[in-house]
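hey team, just a heads up i'm posting the complex here instead of the shared drive bc the drive is being weird again. everything in one block, sequence lines first with there labels, then the predicted structure for the whole assembly after. its two chains so it's a bit long, scroll down
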Amino acid sequence: MLIQEMTWQASLDFLARTQLGRLACAQGAQPYVVPIYFSYNNDHLYTFSTVGQKIEWMRANPLVCVEADEVLSSELWISVIVFGRFQELPDVPEWRSERSLAHDLLQRKAMWWEPGYVRTILHGTERPLVPVFYRIHVTEITGHRAIPEPGNAV
Amino acid sequence: MLIQEMTWQASLDFLARTQLGRLACAQGAQPYVVPIYFSYNNDHLYTFSTVGQKIEWMRANPLVCVEADEVLSSELWISVIVFGRFQELPDVPEWRSERSLAHDLLQRKAMWWEPGYVRTILHGTERPLVPVFYRIHVTEITGHRAIPEPGNAV
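-- predicted structure starts here --
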């Protein structure tokens, strides 16, 4: 196969048309990686979560990495990797417009996270939904695309 | 939707039947996440890579996290997260049997990584294949399964 580097713009375009990624954060020397849904806009990935380990870790260390890919086969895939910084969008007046933007962007992509929709039962008890909206500021981005090698003509 | 915790055994069973995951490692406070193909056997994920950033980072800090999932929709998915430790399988006599096991396990899953198969052209020049075989020793595993909520009968 051939692996090609994607341009900065092609990598951003890929982020803009996808919504599922994997977010890595770290506490001390221990990394942690979880799947996230996000919506890309203007150098930021917007998303939300309920409070939990990853939110606590990112509040303590905002350096993160997000990988998004489209793997059709082992030799036909796209993978984009973002280094970025966690920024919480707290429910206070000065962040209202950014929270509202996050809400709109996520709503455009999917309804799955609507409050009434995500009743979650864990350990036999219902977990209340306390959404934490946040965004990842993209500080570095790289993308690679693999394609099957064309014939053997020299 | 309902999110259920998977048992330790169900989580391992899931790892055993999948092959694509995302591996997170960290250097200092900076995490890094990349897709990997692996083959699970006896508390270890076997895989290989050419030398590069993730190998250098894991040699310096062996603590890693691997996430594997099957996302059919936003409310029908499985996600398994492993905390583990990087162990290189160097090309020396005392590691020969483990390298050979890694080779056999990976071969059973896919042929994509066969040396003649992965001629890689990056930056316009051919990158030689210098495979680094390694395994992740699973020290902790958690799995969650989401299913759509059954009706509204109380």
